[in-house]
Amino acid sequence: MVEYVKRRSFLAGLAAAGVGSQLGGSGQAVAVGSGGNGKLGDLKITKVEILQLTGKNKRRALYLKLHTNAGAVGLYGPIDNEAAMFVDRFFKRGLIGQDPLATETYWDKMFRASRHSRGSHYIMALSAVDNTLWDLRGRYFGLPVYRLLGGSRKKVRAYASCLGFSQEPSALQAKARELKRQGYRHQKWFVRDRGPSHGPEGVEADAKVVRLLREAVGDDVDLMFDAFWEWDLQYALAWTRRVEQYRPRWIEEPFQTANLDAFIELSRETSIPVATGEHFYGRWDVHKFLKAGAIMVVQADPEWCGGVSELVKMCTLASVHGANVIPHGHSIHAALHVVASQPVEICPLVEYLIRKMDTYYHFEKHQPRPVNGMLELPERPGFGIELDESKIADVRAVSWQQS
Ligand SMILES: [Mg+2]
C-alpha cells in the first residue's frame, strides 16, 4: 500500500515536480559546478523523490526526481509502479551522497548489491535511476542526452505500432492505408489472438492478416508482426512458410523469451528475421541470443533492461553481430535518445505505440508526436521533459516504506 509521506501544498508540489524555472522550464541548465565548492567531484545527490502527479482528469503518473547539492536535478517518467516501489525500498537511501555523474560506478555497484539483481523489478528500478541520472547529467551540462552519448541524428524514424486496432479486414486495411498516408513506412501488427490450439485454421487466419496488410499498403511499407508469446515452434514454422512471400520485416516474440532453443530453430528455418528482447535484462541476455544466432532484432527496453547505460552496451554488442537494436516502445524518451545516438545501420527505428502514446505523456509540455513518420530530437537539456502545470491538480511524494 502506498503511504503518503508528505502532502505538499499545490504550489510547493508543482515546484518539487519541476514545473517552472527550477527544472529548466526555460530550457536553461544549471551552471556547471554551481553550488558546493564548484568541483565536479563534489556533486552529490541530496534528495530522492518519487512524485505522484494527479491530473485534473484524475489521471495519475509517477516521476522520479533526484536533487543535488548544486541545484541541478534529474527528472524521469512516467515510471512503472513496480520500479517506483523498488527505487523507494532498495535504492533511495543509498543514492543520498552518490556522485550523480558516476553512472557506470553506480550501475555496477547496484548490480552487485543484490543476488536477485539480474532481472525483473530490481533492474527496472535500476533502469529508472539510471535514466534519471542521465537526465540530471544533461541538465547539469546543458545538453540533450543523445548529444552526451555522442549522437548527431536530429530526427529518428518511428514505426507505427498498431496494438489495439481492429483486425476486421476492411478496418485493418483502412487503418494501414491511413498510417501510410501519415508517413509511416513501417507498421507493426499483432497476431496474438490465435495459436497452436487453433491448428491449421489458426495459421491460415494469421497468414491472412499479413496478406490483407500487404495488399493494403503495397510494396513500399515494411510490415512487422508480434505474436506476444502465443505460439509454439510448429505453429511459427507453419506461419513463416506461409507468409515469407509477403516479406515481413520481422516476426516478434513467437515464444517466451525463456525458450532460446525455439528462437534458434526458427531463425535457422526461416528467411524472416526473428525479434525479441523487451524482456531482456542486462547485456548478458543479449549476448546469449546473438551468439546463438537466435535473433536479428534486439528489442530491449531502456526502462526495463538497465537504462540508457545498458542499452548503449547492447547496441555495441548488436553491432558486432550485425543485428539491429530497435527498442521496445512502452515509453519513448530514453529509447529515442539512445537510438539517435547510434548509427542508423544499428538503430534504424523507434517503436511508437499509437494508441498508448496518445495519452501516456499527458503531464508533459512536449509530447513526442511523429510528423511524417519521424520523431524530432529535443534540443532541451536532458531528455527535455517539462511538466505542464495546467494539467496537474496535485503532486505528492509517495513512499512504500514502513514507517
Ligand atoms: Mg512486443
Concise structural overview:
With 403 residues, the chain is α/β, with parallel strands linked by helices.
What is this structure's SSE topology?
Layout lengths: L2 E2 L5 H7 L28 E11 L4 E9 L4 E4 L4 H15 L7 H11 L6 H22 L3 H4 L6 E7 L7 H13 L4 E5 L8 H19 L4 E5 L6 H11 L6 E3 L7 H10 L4 E3 L6 H9 L5 E2 L8 H15 L2 E2 L7 H9 L7 E5 H7 L13 E3 L15 E8 L4
Parallel strand pairs: 5-6, 5-12, 6-7, 7-8, 8-9, 9-10, 10-11
Antiparallel strand pairs: 1-14, 2-3, 2-14, 3-4, 5-13
Helix pairs in contact: 2-4, 3-4, 4-11, 6-7, 7-8, 10-11, 11-12
The chain binds magnesium ion (MG).
Unreliable residue runs:
1-37
Bound molecules: magnesium ion
Write the element-wise H/E pattern from the N-terminal end onward. Answer: EHEEEHHHHEHEHEHEHEHEHEHEHEE
What global shape is seen? globular
Helix content: 25-40%
Name of the CATH homologous superfamily of the largest domain:
Enolase-like C-terminal domain
| Count of separate DSSP helical elements | 13
Through-space gap between termini: 12 Å
Specify the CATH class of the largest domain: Alpha Beta
Proportion in β-strands: 15-25%
Q: How many beta-strand elements?
A: 14
CATH names the topology of the largest domain as: TIM Barrel
> Helix/strand/pairing class, anyone?
alpha/beta
Task: Write down the oligomeric state.
Answer: single chain
**Main beta sheet: strand number and arrangement?**
9 strands, mixed
Question: How many domain units?
Answer: 2
Task: Average the pLDDT over all residues and give the rounded result.
Answer: 92
Radius of gyration: 22 Å
CATH architecture verdict of the largest domain: Alpha-Beta Barrel
